[in-house]
Write a structure and sequence with these properties.
Dna Ligase, domain 1, mainly alpha, two-stranded antiparallel sheet, 6 strands, single chain
Length: 374
């Protein structure tokens, strides 16, 4: 009997120990949960207070008049930066997002007298009143699908500077670092990856830019173009966030679509082919990446070309290349974010500009034989 009592006592002690351990574990879990909740609350609360503060006037009691000059051709991003530099808003990016959220536009170039006590609504109303009529000295047109070396040539010709000088400046490490500080949401560390050929490749948005000075510096030209890139990326940031795409990934995918597109092409279907291939771990096998890897123009990509050893060669490397291979227009950026829902894995551009989409390699080869030959 005493032995039974002893066993019962042991069992009782073990149960008590387990109950005690369970209480300790529950207490630890509760403490960790509370700490995590407090940290998250602090982050959310801090972010809310930061944004709330940025939406308020810089100094509600100030009567100081600040002369602010908004040059002709200023983008919304440039205007926001000017306002921050002059102490009229606390945060340029918050002001830019506010105007986008409110769908505000129509800002005018001009000389303004503003105060740090003005609300966003008052600043926006003022910026719609000024007007300056100034002669455009020249326009700079950068077409879609151009690569950095081609853009350098266009800039050089328009600004009376050497093509090589412009190209070297576009790849200068100190200049790139300066631009990264000015455009942190656009130019991220991804452009500095060791496999990237040229950091600004794909980032100088294709558009026609008016200039009001005879000889703008390379820096002025590049910043004007990056202002435009930033405005476009802000426009599509919501969709990009939903797809968990960084600006670099977005511009890289868009550049592939741009290079494969023709005037008649449904860019969204091309995008679907690329995404379908990525989803099944199939190489993208897009010829423009091979041409980019070769570093020279070829009229037709041959089998020997496909063997080029480069991280940009999507016949050898799966997934996206390290970075954009050209600049992409807005249609290609939108297609990268809104691909069609298809099961296509192949497409073929014919000599007439038509693009034929197919599902299997046999179908693709049949169409290739029909339209292009061997």
């Amino acid at each position: 009997m005493s032995e039974m009592n002893s066993n019962e006592n042991k069992l009782t002690n073990k149960l008590l120990e387990k109950q005690s351990e369970a209480k300790i574990v529950r207490r630890i879990v509760l403490i960790i949960f509370i700490i995590t909740l407090l940290i998250l609350s602090g982050i959310v609360g801090g972010g809310y207070l930061y944004i709330k503060s940025a939406l308020q006037p810089v100094n509600p009691d100030s009567t100081k008049q600040v002369d602010v000059s908004i040059p002709i051709g200023s983008s919304p991003t440039k205007i926001a930066n000017i306002l921050e530099e002059n102490g009229i808003v606390k945060n340029a990016k918050i002001f830019r997002y506010y105007t986008k959220f409110k769908n505000e536009s129509g800002f005018q170039a001009g000389e303004y007298s503003l105060t740090p006590s003005m609300t966003f609504e008052e600043i926006i109303a003022s910026l719609k009143t000024g007007k300056i009529i100034e002669e455009v000295k020249f326009t700079l047109t950068i077409p879609e699908g151009k690569q950095l070396v081609q853009i350098a040539k266009i800039i050089g010709e328009k600004t009376n500077q050497g093509e090589e000088e412009v190209f070297n400046r576009l790849n200068d490490e100190k200049f790139i670092a300066e631009l990264m500080k000015l455009y942190p949401s656009v130019l991220t560390n991804e452009i500095l990856h060791e496999d990237i050929l040229y950091p600004l490749e794909g980032y100088l948005f294709p558009a026609t830019y008016p200039f009001y000075k005879e000889n703008p510096t390379i820096e002025d030209v590049v910043k004007t173009m990056l202002d435009k890139t930033e405005d476009i990326l802000i426009k599509y940031q919501g969709l990009a966030d939903e797809k968990d795409m960084s600006p670099h990934q977005l511009l890289t995918m868009a550049s592939l679509i741009e290079e494969e597109a023709t005037a008649q092409t449904d860019r969204q279907k091309i995008a679907s082919v690329f995404y379908n291939r990525i989803n099944i771990d199939m190489p993208l096998q897009t010829d423009p990446t091979v041409i980019y890897a070769l570093g020279e123009h070829v009229d037709r990509v041959l089998y020997d070309h496909l063997e080029v050893d480069s991280p940009y060669n999507t016949y050898k490397v799966r997934g996206l290349p390290p970075g954009p291979i050209a600049n992409a227009g807005e249609m290609s950026i939108e297609a990268a974010l809104n691909p069609s829902e298809t099961d296509y894995l192949y497409f073929l551009a014919t000599s007439t500009g038509e693009v034929i989409f197919t599902r299997t390699l046999n179908e693709h080869n049949r169409e290739k034989a029909k339209h292009i030959g061997n």
